[in-house]
Specification:
The protein is α/β, with parallel strands linked by helices. The chain folds into three domains: 155 residues, FAD/NAD(P)-binding domain; 117 residues, FAD/NAD(P)-binding domain (3-Layer(bba) Sandwich), CATH 3.50.50.60; 106 residues, Enolase-like, domain 1 (2-Layer Sandwich). The protein has 16 helices and 23 strands. The strands form six sheets. Strands 1, 2, 3, 4, 5, 6 and 18 form a seven-stranded mixed beta sheet that branches. It has a five-stranded antiparallel beta sheet with strand order 19-20-23-22-21, with helices on both faces. A four-stranded parallel beta sheet has the order 10-9-8-14, with helices on one face.
């Protein structure tokens, strides 16, 4: 199998086709020459993923002298091995799933035969098409000095990269994270897949084993089942998406089963073995019936991540770290008052949009003596299964723990006309509130990730359920569920006493 050259230890881009060559030309050109350092930089950014690119480009845009250091590929996980390629695969998977259920909508399409090679080629082409947004040329055109190579702090105010020493007034660590594997006996000897290597597949695994029932595991398990793989998903939790609303997780779990994913939940994996081209996962079910074995052609591990902090020389810079990554205060400043951090390397919110938002805080706080707080951010998120699960704000139990007087309103999609005509009634919009003021929202629906923005806006700007009720939503749409939730709340305000007063009023006006 042909491969492109690896970049400084980074995962290889496979195969060596036009799309991957275009990607590499954009995010790590083979003929790139690092510039000579220019005096003291106002801002040095370590890491060229979302947080790093936003930090560097934003700082340069306001006139700062900026250097950006990236050891592998600009764009980070999101462009290369995360959001972009995974959502491209999910789009193809949904097309296959829609075609299979088209008969229920009165459309006969015949047999559905996903072309895995074409699906992966499309993914690589879309990724390459987006890559100019994160390209070296764009960074340079913005006035940023771009250095490729491994970075290491050499003192509290200097960073070394590729034989050059950069001096700075302020710096930001934005090196992101990487997938990790659970301590399963034998797993280290298995050639397993992670999100960093899965997107280099060129042949569909006939049997795919997946360890991890979180967002990545569920998304990819469902997608590969739609492509025709025999998929088995394992997790020690009793249900998938254990951090989500249990009702939301139950809907996704039911859809995964319906789509052909075999679920082994609440299990303890005792061993993983690879031999004669097969992977065997041996596990114990919670019923205590003994060790069971599942056999697959490939194994995908999606059960944890770790911050990229090794080799950065953080001790030399006086930057404190923990198991979770770089330690920062609410202003994203590290123990070195001149060094900040943003993105997955320091945040519990491991999302591209969170990295973007944190980078904007760093620019203001580091360069302009701002006092913006990360804790003030309202950060939504979404799991892109079918249906999608999106959330923003507090869950019910969290709100109660914080002392809120929590009420909950749920609008089932079965009561939303658009969902009925679409045959997409498995889902809901659930809003937790305190006397009408939104505290949190969970949505299970097609395109829930798009819908959650309305709840995020309401939370950010302290809007209420009456505000949602008085906002005109187009009919028929899924977003109309927000108006219905607002109407439900308004009806709770019509107490028996208020009703009696209104009845007397109408008698008086007749």
């Amino acid at each position: 199998m042909n491969t492109t050259a690896a970049v400084d230890g980074a995962p290889q881009l496979v195969p060596n086709d036009d799309a991957n060559r275009a990607l590499l030309d954009a995010v790590h050109p083979s003929d790139w020459r690092n510039p000579e350092p220019h005096g003291i930089y106002d801002f040095v950014v370590v890491g060229g993923g979302t947080a790093g690119l936003v930090s560097a480009m934003g700082a340069a845009g306001v006139g700062a002298r900026v250097a950006l250091i990236e050891r592998h590929l600009l764009g980070g996980d999101c462009l290369n091995v995360g959001c972009v390629p995974s959502k491209a695969l999910i789009r193809s998977a949904r097309a296959a799933a829609d075609a299979r259920r088209a008969a229920t909508l009165g459309v006969a399409v015949g047999s559905v035969e996903p072309d895995f090679a074409a699906i992966m080629r499309r993914m690589r082409e879309r990724r390459a098409g987006i890559s100019p947004n994160d390209s070296a040329q764009r960074v340079r055109a913005a006035g940023v000095d771009l250095f490729f190579g491994g970075a290491a702090f050499s003192s509290a105010r200097t960073i070394d990269v590729a034989g050059r020493r950069l001096r700075f007034n302020r710096a930001v660590i934005a090196t992101g994270g990487r997938p990790t594997a659970p301590p399963i006996p034998g797993l280290a000897d298995v050639n397993y897949l992670t999100n960093e290597t899965l997107f280099s597949l060129t042949a569909r695994p006939g049997r795919l084993l997946v360890i991890g029932g979180g967002p990545i595991g569920c998304e990819l398990a469902q997608s590969f089942a739609s492509f025709g793989s025999d998929v088995t998903l394992f997790d020690q939790a009793p249900h998938v998406l254990p951090r989500e609303d249990p009702d939301a997780a139950a809907i996704v779990q039911g859809r995964l089963k319906k789509d052909g994913v075999r679920l082994e939940l609440g299990v303890t994996i005792v061993e993983a073995i690879e031999a004669r081209g097969e992977v065997r996962v041996r596990f114990e079910r919670p019923n205590g019936a003994g060790v069971v074995e599942a056999v697959g052609d490939r194994l995908l591990v999606s059960a944890g991540r770790a911050p990229n902090i090794d080799g950065l020389g953080l001790d030399a810079a006086g930057v404190s770290v923990s198991r979770r990554g770089v330690t920062v205060d609410d202003h994203l400043r590290t123990s070195n008052r001149r060094v900040y951090a943003a993105g997955d390397v320091c945040s519990a919110f491991q999302f591209t949009h969170a990295a973007d938002a944190l980078a904007r805080i760093v620019i203001q706080n580091a360069l302009f003596f701002g006092r913006r707080r990360a804790s003030a951010l309202v950060i939504p998120w979404c799991t892109y299964t079918s249906p999608e699960v999106a959330h923003v704000g507090l869950y019910e139990q969290d709100a109660k723990t914080q002392g809120h007087d929590v009420q909950t309103i749920t609008v089932d999609l079965a009561d939303v006309d658009r969902a009925v005509v679409d045959d997409e009634t498995d889902g809901f919009v659930r809003i937790h509130h305190e006397r009408g003021r939104l505290l949190g929202c969970t949505i299970v629906a097609p395109h829930a990730g798009d819908l959650i923005g309305e709840a995020a806006l309401a939370l950010t700007h302290r809007h209420s359920l009456p505000d949602l009720s008085s906002t005109i939503h187009p009919y028929p749409t899924y977003a109309e569920a927000f108006r219905k939730a607002g109407d439900q709340y308004r009806r709770t305000r019509l107490t028996p006493r208020v009703r009696r007063v209104m009845e007397r009023y109408f008698r008086w006006t007749r």
